UniProtKB/TrEMBL annotation:
SUPFAM superfamilies: Thioredoxin-like. Residues 4-63 form the Glutaredoxin domain. This is Glutaredoxin 3. Pfam families: Glutaredoxin (PF00462). InterPro entries: GLR_AS (IPR011767), Glutaredoxin (IPR002109), Grx-like_ET (IPR051548), Thioredoxin-like_sf (IPR036249).
Amino acid sequence: MPNITVYTTSQCPYCVMVKNFLNDEGLTFKEVNVQRNQREAQRLVKETGHIGVPQINIDGQWVLGFDPESIMKLVQKEG
């Protein structure tokens, strides 16, 4: 099972879509709300160069935004 972390904010509709998609696919993930955790927000921007959410880290590979096709490509590569 891949290691998935989803970086979100509280009011982001695309973040909800990503979480629902992952749940529907039966994939477990950790959620980090960067709106509530400024240290993680700064780390995320430093690591990816992007401030927008959602950002999904799948075993060290990044997907920016709600992109089911890219998510599944990375998940299947791991599996």
